Amino acid sequence: MNMTASNSILIVDDTPNNIKILLDVLNNVGYEVSVAKSGEIALEKLPFIQPDLILLDVMMPGIDGFETCRCLKADENTKNIPVIFMTALSDSVNKLAGLRMGAVDYITKPIEIEEVLARINIQLKLKNTQQALINEIEERRQTEAKLKEALLDLRHTQTQLVQAEKMSSLGRLVAGIAHEINNPISFIYGNLRHTHQYAQELIELLQLYQRKFPTSDSEIQAKSEEADLEFMLNDFPKLLASMKVGIERIREIVLSLRVFSRLDEAGLKEVDIHQGLDSTLTLLEHRLKANSQASNIEVIKDYGNLPLVECYAGQLNQVFMNILNNAIDALLEEPQKQAIPTIRISTRVTDDQHISIRIKDNGAGITVDIIQQIFDPFFTTKPVGVGTGMGLAISYQIVVERHQGILECRSRPGEGTEFLIQIPLNQKPIQSLTQLNIESQKAMGELIVSEPV
Ligand SMILES: Nc1ncnc2c1ncn2[C@@H]1O[C@H](COP(=O)(O)OP(=O)(O)OP(=O)(O)O)[C@@H](O)[C@H]1O
Ligand SMILES: [Mg+2]
User: Fold this and answer.
1) CA 27 to the chain's CA centroid
2) Going by CA atoms, what residue is nearest to atom 17 of ligand 1?
3) Which residue's C-alpha comes closest to atom 1 of ligand 1?
4) Mean pLDDT of 348-354
5) What is the distance in angstroms between the CA of the first residue and the CA of the last residue of the chain?
6) pLDDT, tens only, 196-224
């Protein structure tokens, strides 16, 4: 805090006698005094001397005291310097006008030394107190701002940890279930081929019997009719074929779940980004298909020729999931406005070091006032219980902090929204992490991977 006592005074007066008296007295009591012989000179000097108080004669040739005061008060740098006017008893000045202009006091000439000193003293004390108060307020404001920042940081870290923990358990659960389902599905899938082959042969055998022994046995006849043998023989292969399609679909979903959660792969891995995008799309297929409330959402894959990318694949898949889910939300929100609701996913190698993934929808877009806030934790425009407002905050952390990448959003109302993810092909080790960050990074690492990072 600046507690230096104020002790510099500027005298502005055109009468040498007055100047001399004031100069002697004020110097004697220890003030630092400077002098200007006119309003013009005072205004010229002020940027260089910054006095703590000004004694200003009202009646002066050139610009008078009132005009000088008006100029002082209009300038940011000098407006807070207290001004005491000096007037002769005989001067018929409007004292009130001077006070309204910002002066703090009046001294009457001829000068009474004791009075001058007392008035100067009061004003300088007031100024010191005022300055101390201003300093204290500023200090409090700064402390408050720091506290707010710390609280925000704390809330942010806490949110990340809670979310990481939630995702970690969810990821394990999903991967565990996918693994459990995988075995029985494999039995069914593996045996379906044999079932199909056996059924085919049994049917052929039955048909051979029918040809070789066209029986008139009434019991066989009755049973054949009861079972609708002809229909059964025709329908059975079709039934098996559709079971095969169903099982293949289940296998695809289970595989996508495993690729998506990547629990079986620890830490940084070189992965095929397109596989991650495709597995995410498979898991979202139920939201992309037409139903009674919404039409089909078309997905255009504009995939470039990407090399394998070193990344935390499971986490990156969560980013795809969050952004794609948001795009679907936007397209379902105002389905009537666009001709064909479309999501376009483009991937490219941007330079030798980075790849970009753009996910663009032709939904309603985001307004200017909202776009600033979309990456803030808990910011959501969705109804309570629908959105938590964490999807993009977590995505930002994963892309920017975890992968040293870029996550940007470009959007205009009515023109849809595009998210750009850019990450390096290879991850450099991060040098300067605080312990807290390391902890949260570890927690995020456990989100998908089973080994500590
Ligand atoms: N593609 C988009 N089109 C329009 N608005 C979007 C889009 N993506 C994000 N937003 C806006 O950004 C906000 C924040 O998104 P974010 O994913 O962080 O949270 P959320 O989707 O509301 O909730 P959740 O935590 O369930 O994801 C959304 O509520 C929405 O207003
Ligand atoms: Mg979201």
Assistant:
1) 60
2) 391
3) 327
4) 92
5) 46
6) 999 999 999 999 998 998 877 889 889 98
Burial label, 236 (beta-carbon count in 10 A; 0-12, 13-18, 19+): middle
Q: Whose CA is nearest to atom 10 of ligand 1?
A: 326
Strand order in the sheet with 406-411: 298-302, 342-349, 354-361, 417-424, 406-411
Starting from the CA of residue 382, give the closest ligand: 1
389 lines ligand 1 (CB under 6 A): yes
| Nearest ligand 1 atom, CA 379 | 14
Of residues 294 and 351, the one with the higher pLDDT is 351
Q: CATH no. for residue 286?
A: 3.30.565.10
Residues with Cβ within 8 Å of 256's Cβ and at least 6 positions away in sequence, in order, are 278, 279, 280, 282, 283
Which of 111, 137, 169 terminates a domain? The answer is 111
3-state secondary structure of 36: strand
Contact 203, 233 (CB under 8 A): yes
The alpha carbons of the chain give a radius of gyration, in whole angstroms, of 41
Domain boundary among 81, 111, 141: 111
CA of 381 to the centre of ligand 1 (A): 7
